[in-house]
Amino acid sequence: MRAFRRPITRLAAAVAAIASVTLLLAGCAGIDPDGRGAPGAFPPPSATDQGEGVNGIYPLVFWIAVGVFVLVEGLIVFAMLRYRRKPADVDLPAQTHGNNLLEVLWTVIPAAVVAVLFVLTIVGLNRVDARPPNDQYAVVVDVDGFQWQWTFRYEEQGIEFTGLGEQGPEMVLPVNEPVLIRLHSNNVLHSFYVPRFLYKKDVVPGRVNEFPVTLTQPGEVYGGQCAEYCGLSHNSMYFTVRAATRADFDAWVAAEQEKARATPTPAPSGQPSGPPGSQVQISASNNVKFDQDVVQVPANTPITVTFVNNDPAAQHNVAIPALGFAGQPLAKPGETVTYTTPPLPAGDNEFICSVHPNMKATLKAQ
Amino acid sequence: MATTVVRPGTAPYPSRWAWIYEWATTTDHKKIGIMYMVTAFGFFLLGGVMALFIRAELASPGIQIAQPETYNQLFTMHGITMIFLFMMPMFTGFGNYVVPLQIGAADMAFPRINALGFWMVPAGGLLALSGFVLGGAADTGWTIYPPYSAQSQLRGVDLLLVGLILLGTSSILGAINFIATIFKLRAPGLTLMRMPLFVWNTLITALLLLFALPVLTSALIMLFIDRNYGGGFFDPVQGGNPILWQHLFWFFGHPEVYILILPAFGIVSEIIPVFSRKPLFGYRAFVLATSAIGALGFSVWAHHMFTTGAVYLPFFAFFTFLIAVPTGVKFFNWIATMIRGQVRLAPPMLFALGLMMLFLVGGLDGVFLAVVPFDFAVQDTYWVVSHLHYVLVAGSLFGVFAGIYYWFPKITGRMLGDGLGKVHFLLMFVGTNLTFFPQHLLGLNGMIRRVADYRANPGWAELNLLSTLGAFMIAASVLPFMWNVFLTMRRPKDVNEDPWDGFTLEWATSSPPPVYNFESLPEIRSERPLFDLKHGTRTDSHGAPTDPSRSLPAGRGQTHGETRADAPEEVLGQPVEGHETASGEPRGVTPGLPDERPSEKGDLRGDDSQARP
Predict the structure, then answer these.
(1) Which CATH number is associated with domain B24-490?
(2) Interface contact B459-A25, CB threshold 8 A
(3) How much is the pTM?
(4) Low-confidence ranges of chain A (pLDDT < 70)
(5) Would the CATH topology of A51-86+98-129 be identical to that of A279-365?
(6) DSSP string over B108-174
(7) Of A97, A199, A205, which has the smallest distance from its Cβ to B376's Cβ?
(8) How large is the ipTM?
């Protein structure tokens, strides 16, 4: 029976090893893009007033859990070691069937603990959901989630932009002022998640979810991403949120408004001249690929691309990264946009949708 | 019964075809139970391989092994396989094999429905998995959330839906069969409050299945209609609602968690008393706690939907907190059973202890998640992945292995090797922590689930690598187990009917039991009829005190000590370690023939095992 003890010692050693490796790793730190800190036993510092509602409760719940963990594991290990069967144990131990007092105690005490946690939960929830008086918000941002990008709309300011490439769009918000984020989707579920907000809210088709948020630290940039599985490129549906002082925010708004004015509106689709074949039509019906795999065009002459976006849910465009052709503006669902590309060298020229960099096809110039 | 009767010890089958025919047409609950378990184990290996691919991809940032389209199918089918094709059939297998034996029945109430239910499992399972070879398996996540699942172009989604409808139907049939068996086929004297805890847990599980699975099956049919015939149940454009799916799914899905953990709790509640040589502390409280978990399990489903903004948060938070209480009661009852007992750390007990030590983490995580603001922070992150694996791996899977080590000698007549069993346990215990503990930290730091790739934030690559190493360690731990089974099955049968010094009726018949299970049954006056028989605390079937001078026949009765000073001398001896020669014949007591009954009891009435709290 003595042999039974060895695995226990080894087991304890293994547990200790895991714990120490974990602690060691928790100490590692490299570049830390959004002040999240290395993974540890506590959530990252909160970037918002509302997030404080989580960080206020978490340590208490954590230490209660640690207490229960130590108590119960301790009892298990104690019972296992102290009462393990010895060769001399021939007679049966006392056949105890129960003890009403003990059983009532270990029902009532945990019930009391969870009752306290429930009250704290409601208090914390009220803080997270707290709305400003009269629902007066300094800024309202409408967020459209679609596969696999975000569009941020500041309707009052007349600004709207869609994320391009994997880094996604950047939302700029003033600090210390209540902001309302409204979430829209017209295809599948997404979830708006900023780890340093300690908060996420699902983006649900057929429903507008909204939440208030008040940022606290100007100058910081926080990473965010979609947290509800939404298909192929769910893993790279990123965005960022930048906290700005009021002055910086106003300057940013002015600059964005200026940029919007400078962007050419889609030209009416007349009949631009050019060599035969220099006018092509490209279309997209979903966010995985273009409807055409290879499009034949003449080489060394600008091409007029009529792009039809048949995708009911997502924005697309036609961009040629190798030539620095950005393909602006984007075509919204159902829209047709005409682009004029720079002259194409002979051979295969890859074009993509800048919203969905995985959508690729080829302009074959001859 | 339609079963071909093959008595233990008779010659093997005349030909391979006879063997196949026998197993394919059997209605014997034990054969069906074995087929359930073997099938489930096969699916377990498949699901495990998928998990290894997932973890290999996540070992470092960037896409190395599985492109996102493959990865999304892998994590979806990993979840489906482990839950619907491994855990549920595995526990149905245990229930099939053990419940009739523990209640002293000859078979399940509906043997042919039992066979039908079993054969739907490989059919449904292969259908669900066939997407992998028919142009892509489902890539929707195991929760199959619309609108994505309604739009996904992969045929695998339809195959999954049809497969799950089959599996669900099989489970409903099984649940009805268990309920009928447990209510109608118990041996005389086996009242509800004398049922073994495994039977109680199976009964509650069957009730949960009966109420929860029809909801899932309906939802699956609705989604199938949405996908193929333009129904609008979950499509907001047509007036449907994607949130409706989440309600229906989790109304099934949360009781499902208890469907997967209660049988494991039942197994642990059988093992801990036997390996502590004491009755379960607080039997009544335990039964109440199990029933409370079953009932409360239906009032917490929307805690999976806190971030949808579409549920009434305080209600579901309250009940989620509340359900921690009966679970805690079980833990304290188990520990109190061990205290002042004689704890023997054989593999079944090690896995039971492993379940207690690790499920505790999953349970405490559950309390964290009931704190709604915290749930907002970690919902859909690796923190939740860690939580659910501490529940389903550290809970259900450890329970499965505890049960396999415990009942393997009963099922096969052979004892699994102790040493390999301990290696298996140790590797799995360390591997489970290594895999899933770092995921807590990753999730808390913002790593979301269901992603083929992640950014190289500080510490993430290291923790993910650690997690991957742990996953391979769990996989490695299964190898000594399979080697153990292989070696053991090559040996001749070497186990008597009661190798663990058990308390319940399945140990009162030969190992393996004959087709008809029992030649006779001991009388049942408590939840431990076999203990009473061995330790003589009862009267015989005519109510007269039995003769203490008649001890159990050689090879049986020498097993057990006695606390009382006036214990018969001939019962003293060493505990049986389970490697004795088989005694061949089933043992038991023939009602009406008291003279033939070996007994060592009678003068020991008043032993404290009668003292109910």
Answers:
(1) 1.20.210.10
(2) yes
(3) 0.85
(4) 1-31, 263-276
(5) no
(6) -S-HHHHHHHHHHHHHHHHHHHGGGTTT-B--STTTT-TTHHHH---HHHHHHHHHHHHHHHHHHHH
(7) A199
(8) 0.84
